[in-house]
From TrEMBL:
InterPro entries: S_locus_glycoprot_dom. This is S-locus glycoprotein domain-containing protein. Coiled coil: none annotated. It comes from Prunus armeniaca (Apricot). The keyword Disulfide bond applies. Keywords: Disulfide bond, Signal. The keyword RNA-binding does not apply. Pfam families: S_locus_glycop. Residues 6-28 form the S-locus glycoprotein domain. One of its GO terms (biological process) is recognition of pollen.
Amino acid sequence: MESVVPFGICDTNASPVCKCVSGFQPKNLEAWNLGNGFDGCVRKRELKCTKDKFLRLRSEIA
């Protein structure tokens, strides 16, 4: 079963169960490592609008 979490996706049939989009990391690493990614992901670095750009993502949810 797939579910969307903030800046990531979880799939109980996959390994690892949850993945963050590029540039993000698990908000709660301990829970994440136990397969609970529902706290979602947070930016690895602070947003700097002068140098950031959009990233095209392919939808993984049907």
